[in-house]
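Let's sit down with a protein and look at its sequence and fold side by side. Which protein we use is up to you, so please pick one and set it down. Label the sequence line and the structure token line clearly, so we can match residues to local backbone shapes. Go ahead whenever you are ready, and we will take it from there:

***
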Amino acid sequence: MSSYSGLDDGRDSRSNRGLLRYATDPGSSSFTQFLAAAAPDLLPTHGMNAHDQALAPHGTTIVAAVFDGGVVMAGDRRATMGNLIAQRDIEKVFAADDFSMVGIAGTAGLAIDLVRLFQLELEHYEKIEGTALTLDGKANRLATMIRGNLGAAMQGLAVVPLFAGFDVDIADPVEGQARQAPGRIYSYDVTGGRYPEQHYHSVGSGSVFAKGSLKKLWRPALTEDDTVAIVIEALYDAADDDSATGGPDLNRQIFPVVYVASADGTRRVADAALDPIVRSLLERRAGNPGS
């Protein structure tokens, strides 16, 4: 996971001296608030200038779906800059902590910095309080951070993440009551509005097509392997209709980034495990690509 040393960029600056001064002061368990007070110039939104926002690489599309034992999140690998492909193998899904993950859509550079800060936020809280935030608490913290980017978002530099995780606090069901699924998905708007989602969700420019695909493919009591397969198929369908979404590229060996959060923790699905799933999908679609 991340550590505070990641903030040291080697500069002997006033900001770094401020960090040392504030580090020994008791205060909030929020790392973002600490950084805003000690070194605001290190925040992702500091000094943002949106007049060239069309030239900033943007990332899409992210999908997530729950299964009986947790939740799967996947993201395509394409970043666009206007009508150009800025990067073919960008990573947009990350482990937030041991039981949660976050995917990014929007201004790529700003979003990646926001994810790094969010990882530190969760780590800092656990070190200060001696316990991890609840999954709902993590979702709330991310909402607050997105709200802090509202000024840049209103100028076109929006960050719209998708957050998901395994809820370790779900108790065993009372006799006669249905078991509650441990996987959770949260979507956001640019103002920091937080919305729990049911079963599946997607964000980004290809989200309309991906969500339509998930609507057809998702069903209750899916296995983890089945869920990985349907999120990859949803990204394929999004790439078929959205030029900003990149499909699997076997020639370059570029596969979607796929994470799973379950009782065993958060882990990335290896490309070697995705290869046969992608090949099977392409083989099925070869005769009728639009089906």
